[in-house]
Predict the structure.
Amino acid sequence: FTRSARWFRLGIVAATLALGRSQLAERCVLVAADLADARAQLTHLARGDLPPQVARARADSAPEIVFLYTGQGSQHPGMARGLYQTQPVFRDAMDRCAAILVGQLERPLLDVMFGAGDALDDTAYTQPALFALEYALTALYRSWGIEPTAVMGHSVGEWVAACVAGVFSLDDALRLVAARGRLMSRLPRDGGMAAVYADEARVRPALQGHDDVLAI
C-alpha cells in the first residue's frame, strides 16, 4: 500500500475480501487502478453491466463442514437455557433426550441443567447433559440446512459424533453415556491427573520410587 489514505482504505477492503469474507456462492473479481476506478466498476456491476476488467462466477460446490463435539469440562450451569426457551427444534431434541433418560438418572436432566445446585459437575450428570446439548445443537443446525460432511469428537463428544453418524440410535447412545457417567462418578475422588508431553519410555523411569501413588 502507498501512504495515500484513499489507497489505504482500498487496501483494507482488499485484505478483508481475501482473508475474512464469507464463503458465498456468487463471486466477482475486478482489477482497478485506484479507488475511483474500483467504485466506477462496482457501480456498473450493480446496474447489471459487466465491465471488461470484471470477472464474475458462481461456485457450484458447497463448502465441506465438520462438526466437532467437545468433551467433559465445557459444562456450566444454565448452559443453552436461552436456546431451549427460544428455539423449538432445539427444545424438542432436548425434551426427547430428557425423556429417554428418565429412570437412567436420579434427577431429571433438565432440572440439573437449568436448576440450582452443582449437580451438573457430577460426571453422572455431566456426560448425559453434554451429549443431549450437542445432539440438540446438531438438530438445530440441520433445521437451518447446515449438514456436516464429517463429524468428530473428544471423550463424550465421540459418542455424540458416532450417534450423529448413525453408528447407533439415540436411545442406545444415551443409555450408554448415562451408564458410562455413573461408573466414572463412582471412582475415588481423591486422585489427580496430569498430561505429560513425553513418551512412555521417558516418563516411566521418572516414576520409579513413586509406584504407590503414580501410574501411567
User: Anything to note?
Assistant: Residues 1-7 have pLDDT under 50 and may be disordered. The chain has nine helices and four strands.
